Amino acid sequence: MQGTKRSDIRPGLRVLIVLKQDQRTGRLTEGTVLDVLTRSSVHPHGIKVRLDSGAVGRVKKILV
Q1: DSSP-assigned letters across all residues of 9-52
Q2: Which pLDDT tens digit goes with each residue over 2-41?
Q3: Domains of the chain and any CATH numbers
Q4: Which pLDDT value is given to residue 64?
Q5: What is the DSSP letter of 57?
Q6: Which one, of 26, 24, 15, lies nearest residue 55 by Cα?
Q7: Does an H or E element contain 64, and which?
Q8: How far from the centroid of its chain's Cα atoms is residue 55's Cα?
Q9: How far apart are CA 63 and CA 3, in angstroms?
């Protein structure tokens, strides 16, 4: 599942995000959502979240 709809993202979900510094390489970071930072209902590049590790990035994939 893609991470472009805010309604699909909630705290506690396992996700893969791309950090700002990794946008060029596309390297993904796995973690658990702590906070949802994007206010709009949809974002084409992914909803911005803060992970429990403190990392901030855009959701590229929701893990099940």
Answers
A1: --TT-EEEEEEGGGTTTT-EEEEEEEEE---SSB-TT--EEEET
A2: 999 999 999 999 999 999 999 999 999 999 999 999 999 9
A3: 6-62 (2.30.30)
A4: 84
A5: E
A6: 15
A7: none
A8: 10
A9: 10
Report the predicted TM-score, pTM, of the whole model to 2 decimal places.
0.93
Single-letter amino acid, residue 16: L
Q: Which of 17, 23, 24, 28 is nearest to 56 (CA)?
A: 17
Helix (H, G, I), strand (E, B) or coil at 61: strand
CA 43 to chain centre: 11
Among 54, 4, 8, 2, CA closest to 31: 54
Letter for the amino acid at 40?
A: S
d(CA 35, CA 33): 6
Please report, for residues 23, 62, the alpha-carbon distance to residue 49 in angstroms, rounded to integers and kept in the order given: 15, 12
